[in-house]
C-alpha cells in the first residue's frame, strides 16, 4: 500500500496501545512502558504485512507519497502529548520498516540517483510476488495477468474498497484515544483527583 497508509495504520496502532495508559493518575505517570512500546511496534510491523497482502494499487507516485508520509508522521508525533511521542514515533517507524528494508536501497538508487547496490530479494514475504497484493496499471503490451493488473476486471474497485476499509478502521483506532492529542482534553474519569 502507499506509504501514507502505513503511517496512518502505525498511528492507529499507537492510539489503541495508548488506551492501556488511561488511569486516574498524573499524566506524567502514564508514559507507555518499554513492554507496551515493544509490543505495539511488533503489531505495527505486522500491520504492514496485513495491508500489503490486500489487493491495492498505487494512487500516489513514490516521491510525493514518501514526502507526504514523512510530513504526516512528523505532524502526528508533534500533535500528541509529549508522554506519547516515543510510542507514536516508534510504532510508525515499525510500520514503515519493511518498506525501508526491502525497498529503501531501490528507491535511493532508482528515484534519488544514488549509487547504492540494490538487492532484488525481499526479506518480508508480503513483498514477494506470492504474498503481495500489489496491482499495477495495465497498458499497451502489458501482460494479461488479471491477478496483478489494476485495470483488469474489478481490481480497481477492490483496491479502492480495501483502502477505504483500512482508513475507516484507522479512524476507529484513533477514536479509542483522541485524548493523546495535545489539543484534546482528558476525559473526566482520567483526570487526577
Q: What is the domain total for the residues? A: 1
The radius of gyration computed from the alpha-carbon positions, rounded to a whole number of angstroms, is: 19 Å
Count of runs of 4 or more consecutive helical residues: 5
- The succession of helices and strands, N to C, reads HHHHH
Report on the structure:
By secondary structure, this protein is mostly helical. It has one domain. The chain is built from five helices and no strands. It has helices at residues 3-18, 34-53, 62-79, 85-111, 155-174.
Top keywords for this entry?
about 190 residues; mainly alpha; about 0% strand; about 50% helix; single chain
Brief write-up:
The protein has 193 residues and is mainly alpha-helical. 52% of the residues lie in helices and 0% in strands.
Spell out the blueprint of helices and strands.
Blueprint (H helix, E strand, L loop, with lengths): L2 H16 L15 H20 L8 H18 L5 H27 L43 H20 L19
